[in-house]
Design a protein that fits this description.
Low-confidence stretches: none
CATH architecture of the largest domain: 3-Layer(aba) Sandwich
CATH superfamily of the largest domain: Cobalamin-binding domain
Number of domains: 2
Helix content: 55-70%
Structural class: alpha/beta
Number of helices: 9
Strand content: 5-15%
Bound molecules: CO-5-methoxybenzimidazolylcobamide
Distance between the termini: 55 Å
CATH class of the largest domain: Alpha Beta
Radius of gyration: 18 Å
Mean pLDDT: 91
Length: 216
């Protein structure tokens, strides 16, 4: 059934994807397994076909919308808040970038892990991130970028946090397909997640470190 789900996602067949996702859940397959073994591999194929010119934006959009629908079905099953009360995370996709599937997935898993998530959406400017940090006083600010052309906005946001005197009050976590650990280090970000699971692990470590006074 997982192979059929992958194929239906690639084809952008929403009804079939919704039905198969529900059926897999009903048969006892975990939400994480459905994600890792059916849906994410499907989006990988869509990305490869987009790169090679085998499929075009309208088809990619169809798969993307279908993926969002499946994520909504999985959302209540992605963890039960086992670490409830871990603090607030503000997340958003940077300015000029409207990719949000990965960012939303990261948000859902963070929520499942026990964080309160404020999702600012897509195309979030440095100043909007700064305003949100002022408003919500989060433990972590999470930025996502999927385009090499929008990566510089992550650096802009960190600079804007510094300028606003807020950099010491919030940890910065970044991710997205073109982001690497080396890029995160170069930027002075506090954490990087290659995927949603790693983002959650890193976020938990960051709040644990903040709660434990460093030995001098
Ligand atoms: Co776009 N797009 N796209 N696209 N798109 C990519 C990113 C691309 C790699 C495709 C390709 O050429 N193979 C390419 C970027 C090339 C580059 O810059 N290097 C690309 C391009 C070029 C474009 C346009 C410019 C195309 C055009 O118009 N000519 C355009 C740009 C629009 C814009 O943003 N201004 C565009 C548009 C679109 C659609 C609207 C059609 C659609 C987005 C729909 C949506 O998101 N609502 C779309 C899609 C779907 C993709 C691909 C195919 C899939 C992205 C995705 O959702 N993956 C993508 C190809 C690819 O990445 N393989 C592509 C699934 C998702 C679960 O993974 O987002 O990587 P991902 O998230 C992961 C990790 O990265 C990580 O965890 C997530 C879960 O494991 N992660 C974080 C993400 N954020 C994190 C934050 C964290 C931590 C971890 O901490 C806070």
């Amino acid at each position: 059934m997982k192979e059929q789900l992958t194929e239906a996602l690639i084809a952008g067949n929403t009804d079939t994807v919704n039905a198969l996702t529900q059926a897999l859940l009903a048969s006892g397959t975990s939400a994480r397994e459905i994600l890792d073994e059916a849906l994410l591999p499907g989006m990988e194929v869509v990305g490869a076909r987009m790169r090679s010119g085998e499929c075009f934006i309208p088809e990619v959009l169809l798969s993307a919308r279908t993926m969002q629908g499946a994520l909504e079905i999985l959302k209540p099953h992605l963890g039960a808040g086992e670490g409830a009360g871990l603090g607030t995370i503000v997340i958003g996709t940077v300015e000029g970038d409207l990719h949000d599937i990965g960012k939303n997935l990261v948000g859902m898993l963070l929520q499942g892990a026990g964080f309160a998530v404020v999702n600012l959406g897509t195309g979030v400017s440095a100043q909007q991130f700064v305003a949100a940090v002022r408003q919500h006083s989060p433990a972590i600010l999470g930025m996502s970028a999927l385009l090499t052309t929008t990566l510089p906005h992550m650096a802009e946001t960190i600079a804007a946090l510094q300028e606003a005197g807020l950099r010491d009050q919030v940890k910065v976590l970044i991710g997205g397909a073109p982001v690497t650990q080396a890029f995160a280090d170069e930027l002075g970000a506090d954490g990087y997640g290659a995927n949603a699971g790693m983002a959650v692990d890193r976020a938990k470590t960051l709040v644990a470190q903040a709660a434990t006074p460093q030995a001098i």
